[in-house]
Amino acid sequence: MSRNKNYKPSKKQKYMKTMRSLTIVIMMVFICLTITAKAQIENIKLTADSTVTIDKVYAGILSGTQFSTDSLYASTFANMRFGAMATYQPTKWFAVKTWAIYQAETKTTPWHMQQFWFKFTPTKKLSLEIGNMATLPTEQRPHPVSGNGQFETFSEGQIVGMALNAKLKYAFTNDFKAGAGIAIRKDKPEYSGMLSYKIVKLSSWYSQYDKKIGAAVNINVARVYDTFVWKQDQIVSNIFCLKILKKANVSLYADTGYDLAAKKLVRGEGGLLKNFESKYIKGLFGLGYQHETHTINGYLFVHV
């Protein structure tokens, strides 16, 4: 159907179109510059000021196709994310840390996320962090400025997110660490604790705003990665990954979630992931079945 000659797009439509175009251009330039650098951009100290470190620069695009098993229908999605992390450390015991991401998605308004906090390390074993940042449980989610962060699973996303908070950590040994924290969520305090021993990490939280307890357990060893999340009267979920072919870098995954209130399975996806990596580019191919949508999902993910 041809467009009416008198048609004029609204200011909002013009703005959204401009933002989408600008996002795509910036993203492509960002990726090109990153690849052209011919090195992984991590932990780079600025020559003009050695107190500032660019911890990481990230760019990635994730896309997928969902093939319906109920009818001859397919839908697609794609999102682009780029971000950066930086640290200003004027002294050995004090640092200012920050990171930011910007993401554009199909059928969704572009969004961003940013954290800024202060870290005090009076001794090698003790640290205190204060600011708008990840809480202790949030640290068990993949970092947003990373490939795992952009490809975050349903189960990992059930762990509470960042907030205005303070957290204290103590390393008894290199293998055994503990922490305690307090955050403000929905204008109410949220208390959390963390224990970590070698391959296992456990955190728990209690939120005053909903009077609920939550817990997350993470295991990462050899070929196995697993994160289990429980939220009182709300949900229980688990993401399990097993590398079944080490040389081929192929893994089996299962991401499940059960709604405790509705008493039904709200998330159920399993399949195979083929990871690949070169000097400058990383990513994966994925193929799985999603129970709640009755679709076979194919993924392509590329990032630097």
The unreliable regions are: 1-5
Strand content: over 45%
Helix content: under 10%
Quote the average pLDDT.
90
Overall form: globular
Q: Give the helix/strand class.
A: mainly beta
Structure annotation, total helices: 2
Order of helices and strands: HEEEEEEHEEEEEEEEEEE
**Total beta strands:** 17
Distance between the termini: 41 Å
Our Rg estimate from Cα atoms comes to: 21 Å
Main sheet strand line-up: 2-3-4-5-6-7-8-9-10-11-12-13-14-15-16-17
Largest sheet: 16 strands, antiparallel, barrel
3D structure, described in words:
It is a single chain. This protein is mainly β and 304 residues long. It is built from 2 helices and 17 strands. Strands 2-3-4-5-6-7-8-9-10-11-12-13-14-15-16-17 form a 16-stranded antiparallel barrel. The longest helix has 26 residues. The radius of gyration is 21 Å and the shape is globular.
Quickly describe the structure.
With 304 residues, the chain is mainly β.
Please outline the helices and strands:
Layout lengths: L10 H26 L5 E5 L2 E20 L5 E18 L2 E12 L2 E13 L5 E8 L13 H4 L12 E9 L4 E10 L2 E10 L2 E8 L4 E10 L2 E8 L3 E11 L4 E10 L4 E14 L4 E9 L4 E9 L1
Antiparallel strand pairs: 1-2, 2-3, 2-17, 3-4, 4-5, 5-6, 6-7, 7-8, 8-9, 9-10, 10-11, 11-12, 12-13, 13-14, 14-15, 15-16, 16-17
